[in-house]
Design a protein that fits this description.
The complex is a heterodimer of chains A (210) and B (292). Chain A has 210 residues and is α+β, with helices and mostly antiparallel strands. Chain A contains 6 helices and 4 strands. Chain A has a 4-stranded antiparallel β-sheet, covered by helices on one side. Chain A is elongated and about 110 Å long. By secondary structure, chain B is α+β, with helices and mostly antiparallel strands. The radius of gyration of chain B is 30 Å and the shape is rod-shaped. Classes of the chains: A alpha+beta (210), B alpha+beta (292).
Chain lengths: 210, 292
């Protein structure tokens, strides 16, 4: 035990001597200042040294919450209508021209921000492709004429004031572009579930369990 | 916007589902709006307050608007800008699938006509000739486009009468009606007097449906009025009971309607309102009609 202590003290002393030597070297030869500072930062000071823990800063920062793993997506609460406000409304914009659809949905979103209507979510539904088949007069076989893609965007509003609603709807209707269909509906859980993909393996397993 | 009427604040709210479609020009020249309402509870009628009735007569009026059917004409500046943007996009864009096909086909044709054409090599690369080239498809499409005749943008080349619904298809029009108020017949928005036991919105609906020889199907948006006009009667008519009248305006959109082209109706743009309405009335009405 004593031998170890001796050894430790010897190591300590040697360290001190080293540092003294370093300091001495630093003061003598200014041409290599980098070496000296590097040597300093690589070495952690011993506990009894006054400079122990000199570079510590993490204890000064505000405490962060421990990072959780991503939780399963929960549905946001669907608000019900009260006397003065509507509940969760889905404003659906659909059409064939994607540029017009997107620009119009962005316009609605910006309008809501400006008027103070809270926008809960703003998402897109998958594009539906429609094939237009043409049957010629002579033959019986139909052939594909064109493929039309229907794009849909949904802006979900949470608290639309009843006094603001007529003006809001009027602005929307008067600014509707050509070829765009606008539809305002109440948000239901079925709408929310329709966004998810069906998982056939999971359903098969569930059916097997029951 | 005028403050909402105090009576309205206590009414239960009507939730509604609106489906609006902007389709091509139809014969009626009117946008289709379908509405299905689901009310939470049956409308409760407010019990009449006991005591002295107020000295103001109440009217409910409806501001029926026909939404524009086609898009508005562009300014010269807007035209120039649109052209400039179009050209910039064209210059910056990449080739589409169809254009790439065209290029490949033309290259193949030139290679075929060259002297050192090796047909076996070509077949191996492309795996059989395609019977329809991209150029052929373009030609067929151009032929189809020639057959297509778009409808005229503005039908009233000759100038349709002011009473027609299909007047200015690019603007929104307001319905004006000639009614007798007091002693004079003046142009105003269709109105009806409020009776006890009904909401003001129902009054407005009644005012619209009671118009002679016209059935307009209107969609009201919400229970709140959009404006109010208050006037006092001239001194001869004024009594203790009725000092004046207050008119509450409700906004509605025309969903389907047909009217015989009779005199009492007018569909006017906002800029033409001042020719028909009286100045104090116009001042209040102007505030809530949007010129979009």
């Amino acid at each position: 035990m004593q031998w170890r202590k001796l050894r430790a003290s010897f190591a300590l002393h040697s360290r001190v001597l080293d540092q003294a030597g370093l300091l001495f070297r630093a003061s003598v030869s200014v041409q290599h200042p980098i070496q000296g500072s590097l040597a300093f930062s690589n070495e952690r000071q011993y506990r009894t040294m006054p400079t122990h823990g000199i570079g510590k800063y993490k204890h000064l920062l505000p405490k962060e919450a421990p990072k959780k793993k991503k939780e399963r997506q929960q549905m946001k609460q669907i608000k019900t209508a009260t006397d003065a406000e509507y509940g969760t409304l889905n404003v659906k914009v659909s059409g064939y021209d994607m540029i017009l659809v997107e620009h119009y949905s962005q316009y609605i979103h910006n309008l809501c921000n400006r008027l103070g209507v809270k926008v809960a979510e703003s998402y897109a539904l998958p594009t539906k492709s429609t094939e237009v088949m043409v049957m010629p007069e002579q033959g019986t076989k139909m052939y594909v004429d064109a493929i039309l893609k229907t794009h849909e965007r949904i802006v979900q509003l949470s608290q639309l004031n009843a006094t603001l609603c007529p003006t809001f709807m009027e602005v929307l209707l008067k600014n509707q572009p050509e070829g765009i269909q606008l539809s305002v509906k109440l948000h239901t859980e079925a709408d929310y579930q329709a966004r998810f993909k069906a998982r056939p393996e999971l359903e098969g397993l569930m059916a097997q369990m029951t | 916007m005028a403050a909402p009427c105090s009576r309205m604040a206590n009414r239960p709210l009507w939730r509604f589902i609106t489906n609006v479609r902007r389709t091509g020009l139809k014969h009626t020249g009117v946008r289709q709006i379908s509405l299905s309402s689901a009310c939470r509870a049956a409308t409760q009628t407010r019990s009449k307050t006991e005591g002295v009735p107020s000295p103001w007569k109440l009217y409910g009026a409806v501001c029926l608007q026909r939404l524009p059917v086609i898009s508005q004409e562009r300014n010269p500046i807007e035209d120039q800008f649109a052209e400039l943007m179009h050209q910039m996009e064209l210059e910056r864009s990449l080739l589409s699938d169809h254009e790439q096909r065209l290029l490949e086909d033309s290259e193949r044709m030139t290679r075929k006509q060259a002297d050192n054409y090796d047909s076996d090599e070509e077949e191996a690369d492309y795996g059989g000739q395609e019977t329809i080239t991209a150029q052929d498809q373009e030609d067929t499409w151009e032929q189809k486009l020639k057959h297509f005749q778009p409808a005229l943008r503005d039908r009233d080349v000759g100038g349709t009468p002011l009473g027609s619904v299909e007047r200015c298809l690019g603007d929104s029009l307001v319905l004006l009606v000639q009614q007798t108020v007091g002693k004079e017949t003046i142009w105003l928005l269709p109105q009806a007097q409020w009776e006890a036991g009904e909401t003001l919105r129902q009054t407005a609906e009644r005012g619209l449906s009671s118009l002679p020889e016209a059935d307009f199907k209107a969609t009201f948006l919400g229970n709140t009025p959009c404006g109010v006009y208050r006037y006092t009667f001239p001194k001869e008519v004024r009594t203790e009971r009725c000092v004046g009248a207050k008119v509450f305006f409700f906004k509605a959109f025309l969903s389907a309607g047909s009217a015989s082209q009779k005199e009492p109706f007018l569909w006017v743009k906002k800029t033409e309102l001042q020719r028909y309405l009286k100045p104090p009335y116009l001042e209040k009405v102007d505030r809530f009609i949007l010129n979009l």
